[in-house]
Amino acid sequence: MNTRYLIVNADDFGQSRGINRGIMEAHEQGIVTSASLMVRWPAAPEAAAYARSHRSLSLGLHLDFGEWRCRKGRWLQLYEVVPIEDPRGVRDEAWRQLAEFRRFTGAEPTHLDSHQHIHRRSELEPVFLDMARQLNVPLRSYAPWIRYHGGFYGQDDTGTSLPERITVDALLATLEGLDGAFTELGCHPGYADGLDSMYLAERAAEIQTLCNPRIRSALRSLQIDLRSFRDSAPSKNGGLQ
Hints:
Strands 1, 2, 3, 6, 7, 8 and 9 form a 7-stranded parallel beta sheet that branches. A two-stranded antiparallel sheet has the order 4-5. The model is unreliable at 234-241 (pLDDT under 50). It contains 7 helices and 9 strands; from the N terminus they run E-H-E-H-E-E-E-H-E-H-E-H-E-H-H-E. It has one domain (4-67, 78-231): Glycoside hydrolase/deacetylase (TIM Barrel, Alpha-Beta Barrel), CATH 3.20.20. The chain is α/β, with parallel strands linked by helices. It starts with a strand and ends in a 14-residue tail after the last strand.
């Protein structure tokens, strides 16, 4: 069996102290190797300080333009940073958040992604692709050598809770089915105290799964190596650094 490589990236780092605590736990006791920082929130400096002192955790930028939640079948805006219908405003805000990331961390992000995958909107793609090119880092779902897997998520598209998606057995099945040389597994571990979001109770369940010893054992038996975005770039001979 050929060795496969897995980045386990935790989104929303810095959004709250409870999320920070959950990501730290999932990194130190579980399989999280990377995180994406939301720079606009009061807990962002704490998250950045942790990443500076724990170099085993690569840190990317989780660009944040707003959040939507589904209620009774309708998507409602919880908050807005800039209108996503304004590509120029989105571009300016993206670079402002990058400046904040650099101020907090003293470093460049190892990767880029966005809250609720706003960067995938076709009219906004050029903004984020240009930023990724200038930084020479992967943009989630657009780096050809990294397959993104977003199925480890405990809700459906309408916000209905689906806890069976984030169990140990569900994650084991995902690991067994990995078919690319390099995969990013998205996750959202955290403790929801004080957080206003549609994704709450599921976060603690993710921590339990990510820290379960059966997962580590499966990685060994399946010859899946944990990596971070720091060592995800393809080398000139086509291998992985």
